[in-house]
């Protein structure tokens, strides 16, 4: 097939000849370029090629955008030299951040690693990480400004550094070091230093927080014993009044994003929630949903196993971004009051107790007399308000009870539990969430009857869940639930009429 232009005459012939020449020169140039490239690939070390590519990209950027001035920040994996070497947190953060921004569909080449992780319970998990191969670049746009990241591999000249496998995850591979270059227009230097770099750090922290496996810690003596936390409850699966649910999520989000606010007002960054309601209404599920939402660990404190001196250790060894849960606090309060009434605990030796104050040296071994003293409620509360609040950040305490009316007023006083959340019987909206969770149905011919029954019967979400769990067939399950609700309604109206009869009898006897 002839692709040359067809024109007549001498002029046409000359033009054709010139075109042919130009084409053949272009072909030779292209062939030379390919040859030079493959020779360079064979002969030049990767680090030199990476440096050339990086320089070329900067030149392109500079000349492509007029006479703009450019700045480059060199982010090394380690800082300092010799034995004084320190990991550069920005390097790790930048890699983590970039792994969330790199798009394998848009880039011809990307590094990929799977990192094995092991939690404290010894279980294995995997995290996928994408990274820039040495010599590659990517552009990240932040607030409309372009920031170019380039990965470079440097030789450290024969070792000395830490020896790691060069798997792209560590900053150092044998005597080679990976460096990230961050380039931007000089006019955006302030933005880069004051906003973009902090943004990279925060985003990386959020990614790590999201990816890590959560733990639930149980107290054993003065130590926490931790397990992987797998509770699947989320706010989406939690069956409850939607407005209340939304307000809880909003409250948690506000709390988690208020580091500066808490610092400014000089208050410890903590928040307390009291969950109350009948058994089986989702109080434990709510704690799990909170932990999954915020990516916090749970510390489930069993006070019956704790003596006062253990408590201080347990509370101060909790990590930040965690939820301290004390279930059935009314029972604990009873036990505490009995201990005080029965004079079992003459000395409320719990650190931070009302009269005791917080000792200056918490590491000191407690005197033998204090070792077996019971925990008093005021001691617990003062300790939580005092040392627990200031020994860490971003902490939540959740107390649960089936009987709010039995609680000591000290627990309910304003400022102690910031939000009191009633977990009630299964309402219509809560049922719809359960039906969606179990069968992915939003409507069914039995729904109107179930709605009417739920308005008349007190049934817990746990009871409804149990009925729905019995079969995979929504028709059978919903029919079973309808029958169950009808029976419950009859039982409840029978009990009601018996109570009324008794009352009537009493009145007549008078
Ligand atoms: N509000 C709810 N939303 C979704 N599922 C629920 C809810 N309440 C209860 N369930 C179901 O019932 C089971 C038991 O509920 P959960 O332990 O959370 O209740 P609880 O109020 O903490 O009970 P208790 O007071 O006895 O500790 C859960 O595993 C869940 O399957």
UniProtKB/TrEMBL annotation:
InterPro entries: AAA+_ATPase, AAA_N_dom, At3g28540-like_C, ATPase_AAA_core, ATPase_AAA_CS, Mitochondrial_chaperone_BCS1, P-loop_NTPase. Coiled coil: none annotated. Residues 269-427 form the AAA+ ATPase domain. Keywords: ATP-binding, Magnesium, Nucleotide-binding. The keyword Magnesium applies. It catalyses: ATP + H2O = ADP + phosphate + H(+). SMART domains: AAA. GO terms for biological process: response to stress. Gene3D superfamilies: 6.10.280.40, P-loop containing nucleotide triphosphate hydrolases. The keyword ATP-binding applies. Its cofactor is Mg(2+). Pfam families: AAA (PF00004), AAA_assoc (PF14363), AAA_lid_At3g28540 (PF25568). Residues 487-510 are annotated as: Disordered. One of its GO terms (molecular function) is ATP hydrolysis activity. PROSITE patterns: AAA (PS00674). PANTHER family: BCS1 AAA-TYPE ATPASE. Belongs to the AAA ATPase family. BCS1 subfamily. This is AAA+ ATPase domain-containing protein. It comes from Lolium multiflorum.
């Amino acid at each position: 097939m002839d692709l040359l232009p067809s024109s007549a005459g001498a002029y046409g012939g000359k033009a054709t000849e010139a075109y042919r020449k130009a084409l053949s020169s272009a072909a030779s140039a292209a062939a030379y370029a390919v040859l030079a490239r493959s020779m360079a690939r064979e002969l030049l070390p990767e680090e030199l090629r990476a440096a050339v590519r990086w320089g070329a990209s900067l030149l392109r950027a500079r000349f492509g955008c007029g006479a703009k001035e450019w700045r480059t920040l060199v982010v090394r994996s380690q800082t300092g030299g010799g034995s004084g070497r320190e990991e550069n947190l920005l390097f790790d953060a930048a890699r983590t951040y970039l792994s969330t921004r790199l798009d394998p569909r848009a880039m011809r080449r990307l590094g990929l690693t799977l990192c094995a992780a092991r939690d404290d319970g010894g279980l294995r998990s995997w995290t996928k990480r994408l990274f820039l191969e040495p010599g590659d670049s990517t552009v990240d746009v932040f607030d409309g400004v372009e920031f170019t990241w380039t990965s470079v591999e440097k030789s450290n000249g024969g070792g000395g550094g830490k020896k790691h496998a060069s798997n792209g995850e560590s900053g150092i591979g044998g005597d080679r070091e990976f460096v990230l270059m961050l380039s931007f227009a000089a006019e955006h230097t302030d933005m880069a230093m004051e906003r973009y770099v902090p943004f990279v750090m925060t985003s990386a922290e959020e990614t790590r927080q999201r990816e890590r496996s959560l733990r639930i810690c149980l107290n054993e003596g003065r130590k926490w014993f931790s397990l992987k936390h797998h509770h699947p409850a989320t706010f989406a699966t939690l069956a409850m009044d939607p407005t209340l649910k939304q307000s809880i999520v909003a409250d948690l989000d506000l709390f988690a994003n208020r580091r500066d606010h808490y610092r400014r007002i000089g208050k410890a960054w903590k928040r307390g929630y009291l969950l109350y309601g009948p058994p089986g209404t989702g109080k434990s599920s709510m704690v799990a949903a909170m932990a999954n939402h915020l990516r916090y660990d749970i510390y489930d404190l069993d006070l019956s196993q704790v003596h006062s001196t253990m408590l201080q250790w347990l509370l101060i060894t909790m990590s930040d971004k965690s939820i301290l849960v004390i279930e059935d606090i009314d029972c604990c309060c009873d036990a505490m009051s009995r201990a005080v009434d029965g004079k079992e605990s003459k000395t409320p030796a719990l650190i931070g107790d009302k009269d005791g104050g917080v000792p200056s040296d918490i590491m000191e071994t407690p005197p033998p007399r204090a070792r077996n003293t019971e925990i008093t409620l005021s001691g617990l509360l003062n300790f939580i308000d005092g040392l627990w609040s200031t020994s860490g950040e971003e902490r939540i305490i959740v107390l649960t009870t089936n009987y709010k009316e039995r609680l000591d007023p000290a627990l309910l006083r304003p400022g102690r539990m910031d939000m009191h959340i009633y977990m009630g019987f299964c309402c219509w909206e809560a049922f719809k969430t359960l039906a969606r969770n179990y069968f992915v149905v939003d409507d069914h011919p039995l729904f109107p009857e179930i709605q009417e029954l739920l308005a008349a019967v007190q049934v817990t979400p746990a009871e409804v869940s149990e009925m729905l769990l019995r079969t995979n067939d929504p028709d059978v399950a919903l029919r079973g639930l309808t029958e169950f609700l009808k029976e419950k309604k009859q039982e409840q109206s029978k009990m009601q009429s018996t109570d009324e009869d008794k009352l009537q009898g009493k009145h007549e006897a008078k």
